[in-house]
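Example (one chain per record):
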Amino acid sequence: MDKMQYIENRTFDEIHVGDSAQISRTLKLEDISLFAVSSGDVNPVHLDTEYAQASRFHEVIAHGMWGGALISAVLGTELPGPGTIYLNQSLSFKKPVGVGDTITAQVTVREMVEETKRIFLDCECIDQEGDSVITGEAEVIAPEKKVRRPRAVLPEIHLHERGARYRKIIEATKNLPPIRTAVVHPCDERSLRGAIEAHIQGLIEPILVGPEVKIRQSANEANIDIAAFEIVDVLHSHAAAKRAVALVREGRADALMKGALHTDEVMSAVLDHQEGLRTERRISHVFGFDAPTYPKPLLITDAAINIAPSLEEKRDIVQNAIDLAHAIGIIEPKVAILSAIETVSSKLSSTIDAAALCKMADRGQIIGGLIDGPLAFDNAISPQAAKAKGISSLVAGVADILVAPDLEAGNMIAKQLSYLGGADSAGIVLGARVPIMLTSRADGVLSRLASAALARLYIHWRQEAGS
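Predicted structure:
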C-alpha cells in the first residue's frame, strides 16, 4: 500500500551492478489512441483496422515508442527513480506488440561511473510469451539526494472521436434517396454551407427560400457555388418561412431546414391553423446527442418547443421521440421520464405525470418503447447511481431517451451537455406533416448534416411504416 501511495528513488550510493526493476502493462486499444493523440503519429498501421489487416502485421499494433515509454517509466519511477537525468537511449525493435499483449519492461544496471554518477543499464521489453519485443541500453545520471514523494494521481482520460456516432447515422442513409428540402432563409455562411454540404453528402435536394440578393451575397462572401440550386425569392425571413411551408403543402418539399432566422419565425408558419403543417399529433423537438461519456446516442425532448406541456401533450412528445429512435435503428428504445426524484409525490407534479405516462404505455396509449419514471437524471443515465438507489428497472441507467418535465429543464440539460460535457447535438422537430431540421444558428456543418440525416431516416421509416 505504501509503495502505491509514494514514489521513492534509489540514490547512486544505494545502487549496485546487477540491480534491476520492472513494470508490466497490458496494451489496450485506448493506449494506442492516446499515444497517437499525444505524439501526433497517426500512421494507419496503428489506428486503421482495415489497413492494418492488409499490412505485414495483419493487425493493429502499438507504436514502437510505446514500449520505449515503458522503459522510461521504469527509469523515472523505479530505478533510479525521481531525480534521474536521462542522457542516452538505444533501442532495437524485435517484434510487434498487439492489443491484449502484456509487456514487461525491465532495466538492469550493467556499469556505474563514480566520478560522474553515470549509470549504464541494459533494457528489455518481454511479452507474455517470453519473447523479447525491444532490447537496448540506457545511460542516466543517478540522483545523489533521497527523494520520497506522494505518487501523482493521474487524471481520468476519456477518448472520444468527435462526431463518430453522427457519421454512422449519416452512413446509414447512403442507400436512401435525398429528401427535397426547403431551406428557410439561408442568408449566412453557416446555414448556407450546411445545406450545400448536406446536398454534397446526398442527404437533401435543397430549395433555397429567402431574399435572393442576400442569399447570393452570402454565397459569394463564403465562396460557395449555388448555381445549381433553385432559389425562391421572397422579401424577408417571415415571408421565407411562410413560403417554405407552402412548398410542403404544394408537394414540392418533403422537409424543412431552418436557416439564419429565429425559431419562432419558422414555427409560427408551421403552426398556422389555416396554412401551416399541423397534424393530430403534438409538435415537439428532439435533440440527438453524441456525448463523450455516454456509450450510445442519447435523445432528449422537449427542449425547444413546448414550454409547460400537459399530460396529453407529453404523451405525444414521448411518442415522437420513440418514433425517431425507431427510425435510427433502436428497436425498443428505453425511455426515462425525468423529475427531480425517483418516487411519486403529490408535491411534485412531474412525478405524477411520469407515473401516468408509464400507465399510458401499459394501456397501449404509447407504443414502441420501454418507459419508466419518475427517474432523476443520474438514475436515468448511470447504472451505478441506479444501483446505489436500489432501483430495479430495464430503463434506469441505460436510457436511450430522456423526457424532460418542461422546456426549461430540457433546455438546461441540453446546453449543459453541450457546453460542459463536450457533447455534439443535432435537432429535429416531429409531429408536423414533415420533419423540420431545427438547428441553432451557432451550430456547425456536422450538426446540420446530422440533423439532415435524422430527417432522412425518419422519412424513410415513416414510408416503410406506411404512415
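Caption: The chain has 16 helices and 18 strands.
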